[in-house]
UniProtKB/TrEMBL annotation:
It comes from Flavobacterium alkalisoli. Pfam families: DUF2200 (PF09966). This is DUF2200 domain-containing protein. InterPro entries: SP1917_dom_sf, UCP033199. It comes from the Bacteria.
Protein backbone atom coordinates (compact mmCIF):
# COMPACT_ATOMS: atom_id res chain seq x y z
CA UNK A 1 0.00 0.00 0.00
CA UNK A 2 1.22 3.47 -0.84
CA UNK A 3 2.72 5.13 2.27
CA UNK A 4 0.55 8.28 1.99
CA UNK A 5 -2.66 6.22 1.87
CA UNK A 6 -1.46 4.01 4.72
CA UNK A 7 -0.75 7.02 6.94
CA UNK A 8 -4.15 8.51 6.09
CA UNK A 9 -5.87 5.23 7.04
CA UNK A 10 -4.03 5.03 10.38
CA UNK A 11 -5.19 8.53 11.32
CA UNK A 12 -8.79 7.85 10.32
CA UNK A 13 -11.23 7.70 13.23
CA UNK A 14 -12.52 4.22 14.02
CA UNK A 15 -15.80 5.85 15.08
CA UNK A 16 -16.09 7.34 11.60
CA UNK A 17 -15.88 3.91 9.93
CA UNK A 18 -17.88 1.91 12.49
CA UNK A 19 -21.30 3.12 11.19
CA UNK A 20 -20.31 1.90 7.72
CA UNK A 21 -19.65 -1.57 9.14
CA UNK A 22 -23.11 -1.49 10.72
CA UNK A 23 -24.83 -0.29 7.55
CA UNK A 24 -23.11 -2.98 5.49
CA UNK A 25 -24.24 -5.84 7.73
CA UNK A 26 -27.68 -4.50 8.63
CA UNK A 27 -28.57 -4.26 4.92
CA UNK A 28 -27.98 -8.01 4.83
CA UNK A 29 -30.07 -8.77 7.92
CA UNK A 30 -27.23 -9.01 10.43
CA UNK A 31 -26.97 -6.98 13.66
CA UNK A 32 -24.88 -4.43 15.53
CA UNK A 33 -24.44 -7.03 18.27
CA UNK A 34 -22.82 -9.39 15.76
CA UNK A 35 -20.45 -6.66 14.56
CA UNK A 36 -19.54 -5.86 18.15
CA UNK A 37 -18.99 -9.56 18.86
CA UNK A 38 -16.56 -9.77 15.94
CA UNK A 39 -14.72 -6.67 17.18
CA UNK A 40 -14.56 -8.10 20.71
CA UNK A 41 -13.21 -11.39 19.37
CA UNK A 42 -10.54 -9.75 17.19
CA UNK A 43 -9.37 -7.01 19.58
CA UNK A 44 -10.09 -8.33 23.05
CA UNK A 45 -12.06 -5.17 23.84
CA UNK A 46 -15.14 -5.49 26.02
CA UNK A 47 -18.31 -3.50 25.37
CA UNK A 48 -17.24 -0.64 27.67
CA UNK A 49 -13.79 -0.28 26.11
CA UNK A 50 -15.21 -0.42 22.59
CA UNK A 51 -17.68 2.32 23.47
CA UNK A 52 -14.87 4.44 24.94
CA UNK A 53 -12.93 4.15 21.67
CA UNK A 54 -16.04 5.19 19.75
CA UNK A 55 -16.75 8.11 22.10
CA UNK A 56 -13.12 9.26 21.99
CA UNK A 57 -12.97 8.92 18.20
CA UNK A 58 -9.81 6.83 18.51
CA UNK A 59 -7.87 6.55 15.26
CA UNK A 60 -7.22 3.15 13.67
CA UNK A 61 -3.56 3.18 14.68
CA UNK A 62 -4.32 3.60 18.39
CA UNK A 63 -7.37 1.34 18.21
CA UNK A 64 -5.32 -1.61 16.99
CA UNK A 65 -2.08 -0.78 18.83
CA UNK A 66 -3.95 -0.91 22.15
CA UNK A 67 -5.81 -4.11 21.24
CA UNK A 68 -4.91 -7.66 22.20
CA UNK A 69 -5.32 -9.37 18.85
CA UNK A 70 -6.86 -12.84 19.03
CA UNK A 71 -4.22 -15.52 18.35
CA UNK A 72 -6.63 -17.19 15.90
CA UNK A 73 -6.67 -14.04 13.76
CA UNK A 74 -3.86 -15.58 11.72
CA UNK A 75 -6.45 -18.09 10.44
CA UNK A 76 -8.24 -15.27 8.60
CA UNK A 77 -7.50 -15.63 4.90
CA UNK A 78 -8.86 -14.34 1.64
CA UNK A 79 -9.04 -11.15 -0.36
CA UNK A 80 -10.38 -7.84 0.88
CA UNK A 81 -9.97 -4.48 -0.86
CA UNK A 82 -7.82 -6.17 -3.49
CA UNK A 83 -5.31 -7.50 -0.98
CA UNK A 84 -4.83 -11.08 0.24
CA UNK A 85 -4.95 -10.56 4.03
CA UNK A 86 -2.55 -13.37 4.88
CA UNK A 87 0.12 -11.77 2.64
CA UNK A 88 -0.03 -8.25 4.09
CA UNK A 89 3.39 -7.64 5.64
CA UNK A 90 2.63 -4.60 7.81
CA UNK A 91 1.02 -5.98 10.99
CA UNK A 92 -1.16 -2.94 11.69
CA UNK A 93 -2.52 -2.90 8.14
CA UNK A 94 -3.11 -6.63 8.33
CA UNK A 95 -5.16 -6.18 11.52
CA UNK A 96 -7.27 -3.47 9.92
CA UNK A 97 -7.92 -5.72 6.93
CA UNK A 98 -8.72 -8.64 9.24
CA UNK A 99 -11.60 -6.58 10.62
CA UNK A 100 -12.71 -5.61 7.12
CA UNK A 101 -12.68 -9.28 6.12
CA UNK A 102 -14.67 -10.38 9.18
CA UNK A 103 -17.32 -7.71 8.59
CA UNK A 104 -17.47 -8.74 4.93
CA UNK A 105 -17.99 -12.39 5.89
CA UNK A 106 -20.75 -11.40 8.30
CA UNK A 107 -22.48 -9.37 5.59
CA UNK A 108 -22.23 -12.33 3.22
CA UNK A 109 -24.17 -14.50 5.67
CA UNK A 110 -21.35 -16.68 6.93
CA UNK A 111 -22.04 -18.47 10.24
CA UNK A 112 -20.57 -16.78 13.30
CA UNK A 113 -18.61 -19.94 14.28
CA UNK A 114 -16.85 -19.87 10.92
CA UNK A 115 -16.22 -16.13 11.06
CA UNK A 116 -14.61 -16.52 14.48
CA UNK A 117 -12.51 -19.46 13.27
CA UNK A 118 -13.87 -21.81 15.95
Amino acid sequence: MEDKNYQRLLKMSFAGVYPHYLTKVEKKGRTKEEVDHIIHWLTGYGAKTLQQHLDNKTNFEDFFTQATINPNASKITGVICGYRVEDIEVPLMQQIRYLDKLVDELAKGKAMEKILRE
